[in-house]
From TrEMBL:
InterPro entries: DUF7779, TPR-like_helical_dom_sf, TPR_rpt. It comes from Bombardia bombarda. This is DUF7779 domain-containing protein. SMART domains: TPR. It comes from the Eukaryota.
C-alpha cells in the first residue's frame, strides 16, 4: 500500500483518520464553528473548494469511504496501521495532535452553570469512541516513543469524556481513561497543568471510587480535588461548590453524616457566593446540591428537612428549561426513600416508579445502577405492602442488573440477594431457595466486611451502597 502520491491536504486528513475510530467519523469533525479551532495543517478544511477535493482523492484511491447521506467517513484498520507506519515520529506526533484538537473541539463541553452533561448525551455518544481510540493510540505511541506527548487539549477532552462515562456508569472504560489521562498530564509543561484540568481529573477519580464501593479511598481524591479548586486565582466559588458537594456525597456514602452535612453547607454557601453576583436567580442554589443534601439527611434519620429540600429541588427542576430529567429522577428516588422511611408505602412506590420511568425514557440503559436501585426499592416497597410475589419479581430483575456488574456492585448485589431471601421466605415452596440466597448474601457481606454484625438487617447492606442510589 503506497501513499507517495498523496498531496499534502489528503495526507493531513488521512493522518487524523488514522488515530481515531475507523467507523462513523462525522465530517463535522473537520467543520468546527470557528476556523480558528482548526490546527495549522488543517486550515484548508474551512474552504470547501480545498477540503472536498482532498476527501474525494482519498475516496478515489479507495483509502476511505464517504457516505454522503449520513455525512460520515470510514476506513479499514489496515489503512490506518499502514499509514501510521509510513510516518516518521514527528509526523505521527503532528497527526495525533491534529486529531486530538479536532475531537476535543467537537466533544460537547459542560455548561458552567450545571454539573452534568445529561442534556448533551447524544453528542457525547458520537465522539466518545474517538476519544477512546485516541487514548488507546497514545498508550501505544508512548511505548514505541517515550518522548511522545499530548497537547493540553487531550487532557481537557478526556476530562469531558470522563464526566460522560461517569454519568453512563461505564466504570471499566472510565477507569482506563482516567489512568491514561493521568499519564498524559505528566507530559504537559507545568504551566499547562491547570487547576481546572487537575481538579476535574482528581474529582472523577474520587467519584469513580465512591461509586464502586471504595468510598474511603474516593474521599481522599475528592478532598484533593476540593483543595486544588481552592487554590484557583481568582477563586471560582461555583466550581468549588460542585467539588464540595462531591466530597459530601463521599462522606455520606461512608455514613459519616455530620461531615457530609458540613460539606453540603459549604457547597451551598459557595454556590450562593457565586449566584449573589448574578442578575437572575440571585442567591439561589441548585437542585443537584439540594437533593444530595436531602439524601444525607434522610439516611441520617432526618426525613422532615430532607423532604423540604427535595420538594424544593423538584420544584426548581420543574421550573427550569431545559428540563433536567436526571436530577428529576434522582429527586423522585430520594422522595421515595423519605416516604418509605415514614411508612407511606404507596407514595414511596409512586416516586420509585416515576424515578425509573424518567431515567429509562432518556438513558434507556437497563444495566445502569440507578435502574437497579429503582427495581430494588420497588421490591422493598412491595414487600412492605405484603405483596411477596411482586417483591420477588422486582428483586429478581434488580439482581439481573447487579449480576452483570458484580465486581463493581458487590454491595448492591448482596443487598438484592438479602432482600430476595426475605421475599422468598414468605412462600413455603421457596424455602430452600430462600436459605441459599440468604447464605450467598451473608457470604458476600463477610467478604466485604469481615467483622459485620446484624447480617439479618436490611440497613446493614444498605449502609455499604453509594448514597446516590442507596
Amino acid at each position: 500500500m503506497s501513499f507517495e502520491s498523496l498531496d499534502s491536504h489528503s495526507r493531513a486528513i488521512l493522518g487524523v483518520l488514522s488515530f481515531i475510530q475507523p467507523d462513523k467519523i462525522p465530517e463535522a469533525l473537520f467543520e468546527p464553528e470557528s476556523s480558528t479551532a482548526l490546527p495549522a495543517s488543517l486550515k484548508f478544511c474551512s474552504d470547501n473548494f480545498l477540503f472536498s477535493p482532498a476527501i474525494e482523492n482519498l475516496v478515489t484511491l479507495e483509502l476511505i469511504k464517504r457516505d454522503k447521506a449520513s455525512r460520515t467517513l470510514s476506513l479499514h484498520r489496515p489503512v490506518q496501521d499502514n499509514f501510521k507506519s509510513s510516518m516518521n515520529p514527528e509526523q505521527r506526533q503532528q497527526a495525533f495532535n491534529d486529531a486530538t484538537m479536532l475531537v476535543s473541539t467537537a466533544f460537547p463541553h459542560r455548561d458552567s452553570t450545571v454539573a452534568q452533561l445529561y442534556q448533551m448525551w447524544a453528542g457525547c455518544a458520537v465522539y466518545e469512541p474517538h476519544v477512546i481510540a485516541l487514548k488507546d493510540n497514545f498508550k501505544k505511541e508512548l511505548v514505541a516513543n517515550p518522548k511522545f506527548t499530548v497537547p493540553q487539549a487531550y487532557c481537557i477532552m478526556s476530562n469531558m469524556c470522563q464526566r460522560y462515562l461517569l454519568e453512563l456508569r461505564s466504570f471499566e472504560v472510565l477507569a482506563d481513561l482516567l489512568d491514561v489521562n493521568t499519564m498524559a498530564l505528566a507530559t504537559l509543561r507545568e504551566s499547562e497543568q491547570t487547576i481546572n484540568i487537575q481538579g476535574s481529573l482528581t474529582s472523577h477519580k474520587g467519584q469513580l471510587l465512591t461509586h464502586i464501593g471504595k468510598a474511603e479511598e474516593g474521599v481522599k481524591w475528592l478532598r484533593k480535588s476540593y483543595d486544588i479548586r481552592s487554590r484557583d486565582v481568582p477563586f471560582h466559588p461555583r466550581e468549588s461548590a460542585w467539588a464540595a458537594d462531591n466530597l459530601a456525597v463521599g462522606f455520606a456514602t461512608l455514613n459519616r453524616f455530620e461531615e457530609a452535612a458540613k460539606w453540603h453547607i459549604k457547597a451551598r454557601d459557595h454556590f450562593q457566593e457565586w449566584s449573589n453576583h448574578q442578575t437572575e436567580r440571585k442567591g439561589e442554589w441548585p437542585a443537584e446540591i439540594m437533593n444530595s443534601m436531602g439524601l444525607g439527611l434522610v439516611w441520617s434519620g432526618q426525613p422532615t428537612p430532607a423532604r423540604e429540600l427535595m420538594d424544593g429541588a423538584l420544584e426548581k427542576v420543574n421550573s427550569v428549561e431545559p428540563y433536567n430529567w436526571a436530577v428529576a429522577a434522582s429527586t423522585h428516588f430520594g422522595l421515595g426513600t423519605v416516604e418509605r422511611y415514614e411508612g407511606n408505602w404507596d407514595a414511596a412506590e409512586a416516586h420509585f416508579i416515576e424515578a425509573q420511568n424518567l431515567w429509562l425514557q432518556r438513558s434507556r440503559i437497563l444495566s445502569d445502577p440507578f435502574n437497579g436501585a429503582c427495581l430494588y426499592r420497588l421490591g422493598c416497597t412491595a414487600l412492605d405492602k405484603g405483596q411477596p410475589e411482586d417483591a420477588v419479581r422486582y428483586l429478581r430483575d434488580a439482581l439481573e442488573v447487579t449480576k452483570k456488574r458484580k465486581t463493581e456492585m458487590v454491595a448492591e448485589h448482596m443487598r438484592g440477594l438479602f432482600k430476595l431471601s426475605e421475599a422468598l421466605e414468605q412462600e413455603p415452596r421457596y424455602a430452600e431457595e430462600a436459605r441459599a440466597t440468604r447464605d450467598e448474601a451473608e457470604s458476600l457481606l463477610r467478604q466485604l466486611v469481615p467483622d459485620a454484625s446484624n447480617a439479618g438487617k436490611e440497613s446493614t447492606y444498605d449502609s455499604l451502597v453509594c448514597i446516590l442510589w442507596r
